[in-house]
Q: What sequence folds into this?
């Protein structure tokens, strides 16, 4: 695969992460600001965010929601930290 093709693919991932950031930032903000305790909603949001944690801004958003969720369900939050490590830590 030529380098230009790889560069184009990386650019597409970056654009996708930027779009996801626009969508999920208000969702995470609302969860935290309204002190939402709905674990299904929080976990679903973390699941979606996890797919974009290759991007530093999305990772920051993911960590922010994990910190909030820790006080609600530390065991589940620890699982989400492990999921991140399995996907992205080398």
A:
């Amino acid at each position: 695969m030529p380098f230009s093709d790889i560069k184009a693919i990386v650019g597409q991932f970056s654009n996708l992460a930027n779009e996801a950031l626009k969508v999920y930032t208000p969702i995470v903000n609302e969860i935290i600001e309204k002190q939402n305790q709905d674990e299904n909603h929080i976990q679903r949001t973390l699941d979606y965010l996890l797919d974009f944690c290759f991007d530093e801004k999305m990772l920051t958003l993911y960590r922010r929601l994990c910190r909030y969720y820790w006080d609600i369900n530390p065991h589940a939050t620890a699982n989400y930290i492990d999921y991140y490590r399995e996907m992205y830590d080398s």
